[in-house]
Design goal:
Family: Belongs to the 'GDSL' lipolytic enzyme family.
Distance between the termini: 26 Å
Oligomer: single chain
Bound molecules: 2-acetamido-2-deoxy-beta-D-glucopyranose
Order of helices and strands: HHEHHEHHHEHHHEHHEHEEH
Pfam family, one: Lipase_GDSL
GO molecular function: hydrolase activity, acting on ester bonds
InterPro entries: GDSL, SGNH_hydro_sf, SGNH_plant_lipase-like
Keywords: Glycoprotein, Hydrolase, Membrane, Signal, Transmembrane, Transmembrane helix
Radius of gyration: 20 Å
Strand order of the largest sheet: 2-1-3-4-5
Number of helices: 14
Strand content: 5-15%
CATH class of one domain: Alpha Beta
Largest sheet: 5 strands, parallel
Shape: globular
């Protein structure tokens, strides 16, 4: 088993030998002493569940693969953030809203499912419904409040503390588009939100840099044209609307447009703050690897059909969400990319995390490990 996992890993990550050597030469992890994470359901580790206990995400089969219970992650197991934490030798991050009484010196997760980069008022003014008021601005307020209990801002102590933190800024911004798309808004209107969304992300990074943070990882948007939910909602009779992978071209172009805006802004931030390390986490291209050739990476059931959900060409049906009584769930989620129509399986998230670690190991993850599928679950983990 171990050798087949390794040979799989080597086929996916040809530079793995380099990383393993590097890891051996630097056996001491701990390059980062803490992680603070902001974002939405791609990174949530329980915040939605702590604020609304009746959510589907609180029911099996969510969480079944790794945790063997639903713990508020929108997947069958770990999400990208969990793999990053494990790869740098830190514990899995507790969700902020369930963290009272816990020692948070190794970090905490502010990401909330449904969260947006723009404030709730932006959507209210445009009569776009959002599930909860948990924008990046709200998450940043939580962070500022928490910081006062972790370090002493009057002595420069917080700058010292945040210097060894890794900040995961996202994924955030995807819902600013998802909510209006699924409420039937027009493409041009939604596209016009882009600069404001990117500005909100950039402003949050600036605030954190002023507090002393120097290392950021900023994910872009996934290729939404390959998402089961979008494929279902925007199903088209025209073959030309689809690319050779079965994804909707115009929606992938939309994701790329957002990602270009975000990368331009990151370039500006790098010039403004040369001492900071700001990595663009290229979720789009990392994910395109498995959308182009799912079989090559073990996704035998393809990348477009959801493992868990209702009937439909993509196993995705908004009337029968995963976690509801009528939903069907596949036998082996590791053979699927898509978990519940919107979110990805643990196997797909592990793939994304490992690509990011591999692409950035020299600069950002000098001591990081590639995480195998068989990494054991410790009962003290969340
Ligand atoms: C969202 O929450 C923040 C902070 O709790 C509050 O200041 C803001 O007014 C709220 N916005 C809306 C639209 O409810």
């Amino acid at each position: 088993m171990a050798s087949s996992v390794l040979s799989f890993a080597f086929s996916v990550f040809p530079n793995l030998i380099v990383i393993l050597l590097f890891t051996t030469a630097n056996p001491v992890l701990g390059y980062y002493k803490s992680i603070f994470s902001f974002g939405d359901s791609l990174a949530d580790t329980g915040n939605v569940l702590y604020s609304q206990t009746d959510e589907y995400v609180g029911k099996l089969p969510y969480g079944r693969t790794y945790f063997h219970r639903a713990n508020g992650r929108f997947s069958d197991g770990r999400v990208v953030l969990d793999f990053i934490a494990q790869s740098v030798g830190l514990p899995l991050l507790p969700a902020y809203l369930g963290s009272s009484g816990k020692d948070l010196h190794q970090g905490v997760n502010f990401a909330v499912g449904g969260g947006t980069a723009l404030d709730a008022s932006f959507f209210e003014e445009r009569k776009i419904t959002i599930p909860r008021n948990a924008s990046l601005g709200v998450q940043l307020e939580w962070f500022k409040q928490l910081l006062l209990s972790l370090c002493n801002p009057s002595t420069g102590d917080c700058h010292e503390f945040l210097k060894t933190s890794l900040i995961l800024m996202g994924e955030i911004g995807g819902n600013d588009y998802n909510h209006p798309f699924f409420q039937g808004r027009g493409l041009e209107e939604i596209k016009s939100f882009g600069p404001g969304i990117v500005n909100a992300i950039s402003s949050a990074i600036k605030v954190l840099i002023k507090e002393g943070a120097v290392t950021f990882m900023v994910p872009g948007n996934l290729p939404i044209g390959c998402s089961s939910l979008y494929l279902t909602q925007y199903k088209s009779p025209n073959k030309e609307d689809y690319d050779e992978n079965g994804c909707l071209r115009w929606l992938n172009e939309f994701s790329m447009h957002h990602n270009n805006l975000l990368q331009k802004e990151i370039d500006i931030l790098r010039e403004l703050y040369p001492h900071a390390k700001i990595i663009y986490a290229d979720y789009y291209n990392a994910a395109m690897k498995f959308f182009v050739s799912p079989e090559k990476f073990g996704f035998k059931n393809g990348a477009l059909k959801a493992c868990c959900g209702g009937e439909g060409p993509y196993n995705c049906n908004k009337d029968v969400p995963c976690g509801s009584v009528d939903a069907r769930v596949c036998d082996d989620p590791s053979t699927y990319v898509n978990w519940d129509g919107v979110h990805l399986t643990e196997a797909a998230y592990r793939f994304l995390a490992n690509v990011l670690i591999e692409e950035n190991h020299q600069f950002f993850f000098p001591a990081a490990k590639i995480i195998g599928a068989t990494t054991t679950h410790h009962t003290d983990e969340l």
